[in-house]
User: What shape does this take?
Amino acid sequence: MKFLHVVSLTLAAVFAQTGSSFAEYPDRPIRLLLPFPAGGAVDIVTRVMAAKMGEDLGKTFIIENKSGAGGIVATDAVAKATPDGYTLLITTPNHTINGALQVSLPYSTEKDLVPISVIAEVPEVLVSNPKAPFQTFPEFVAYAKANPGKLDYASAGIGTLPHLSMELLLQRVGVKVTHIPYRGAAPAMTDLLSNVVQLKLDTYTTSNPQVTAGGLRMIAIASSRRSKLMPDIPTVAELGLPGYEGILWIGMMAPTGTPQAIIDKLVAASAKAARDPGVVERLTRDGVDLVGGTPAEFAALITRELTQWRDLAKAGDIKLQ
Assistant: This one.
């Protein structure tokens, strides 16, 4: 009996200490890995949100840009990190695209990381060169159906979100437009402005200056609702493709095994940052929608996209090179 009493006291002390450590989380800076170079849209959104989350949690987020292999390098580093809440991942649809299209990965997309929150979304916009033989989305579809293969669209490369989102769109409307992959978004935009290619899925931030200058025409937005920044631009969904979306979501993940108490703290901090007036004002002018969602919502998104990209790749014979 004395032995059992000692064991009970020991376990109670361990649980008390563990609970205390969760309650005190974080007690040091949090490392946040991004699979992209500094300066891009994902990097900017992350830094704004992380700064506000850090204020709420009382500790700094140390952001490390760890690009390489389409996000696999950073994702693998976090998947193999100690699950203590001090090494986290910022990711985008590259996470589900890699999981659906890569033949092999050094981690399990569905088992080695757990979702925390989708912190923000950036809807894609469909833009065209003004010299293209159409001015609206219905006119584009009609022309493409009457002239299969005569139009070209640009992307930043095979397997990127704009590539797969555009292929999904073309599949849904039943038209053939030739994909011209580039090594990055900048050269793709250059050829779009020169009418070498006629179409591109892009972001509001990079497209709008060109639209304002007359170099591009915006013909649709790939979100479920119209944007306050461009209320006259219809959604693809309302133009006849209900349910279609092309969204650059930005999400935070942790290694599997991270204590739920820590996940809960990060979820709460994300939601609070997404409602902060300063954060909203800073990011919405760039076409960013703040979310601060739940782990369950993020998990459902991952499951849905893995199925979507696998089906699309099979139907369109799309392979990552």
